[in-house]
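Reopening this one. Same input as before:
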Amino acid sequence: MTMPSLLLLLALFSTFAFAQTNATDAALDGYIMDEPGGRIAGASVSIRSMLTNQRFEAKANEEGYFRFPLLQVGTYELIVVAPGFAEYRQSGIELRVGQQARVNLSLKVGSTSDSVTVQADAAMVESSGLAAQGEVLNSRAMRALPVTSRNVYNLHLIGPGVKGIPSTGFGTTQFTFGGNNRSTWTVDGIDNTQRANARQIRLVISTPESVEEMQVLSGGYSAEFGRAAGGIINVVSRSGTNTYHGGFMYLNRPIAAAARPPLAATKPDQP
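Same output, byte for byte:
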């Protein structure tokens, strides 16, 4: 192999190795300021997952800007420490799949032993400039929304810009986006699209107990998804937490409670 070819290969490998995507994660950034509005450089910023207790750390640059590019979906606590200012804590930050969230915060003058605590994420805004239309169903929606089968894809038929044919069993829900059925299906960022025939999905049908979040996008979505003229169905599976827990799902369809046409034929009682 010639030297130019080797250098090209190394350059390509570096590009792939450091590529970052929010197809299965979220991102959080923001600016740190004092009360008059001046930027605070060099502040120590950390963010902690409330599910796994995993912590990530960063330093604000000279403009007071910080960024966490790849965060697992879930609930977080943000902590900021800077010399001459009281410690800042913000809890209840909910991050959804594909979200580019921003938290701009103001530090109060004081000692590092002082603390300012903010509950919930009222100050968080969406910093992404994408014009995609769609929705995200979080883990609470997955467990609470009524569904006539174990097929969670049916839940997205009520989403904006989505039309389709539901699956009454454990089959594939058929989606169309603006009349186009060329869609891409992903599970944890892995392509799950059937491209050889009329079926849209290649392998597994996800059930509610296995899904953390689901995202549907149509039009204007990021190029990181690609390969779809219609829309994106993006599934993020559940992961472990710091606490022991378990669950089960039971599906019961009593025939006596089923809705039937008033003139429908009925079978005679068996002796």
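So the earlier flakiness isn't reproducible anymore. For the record, Residues 6-20 have pLDDT under 50 and may be disordered.
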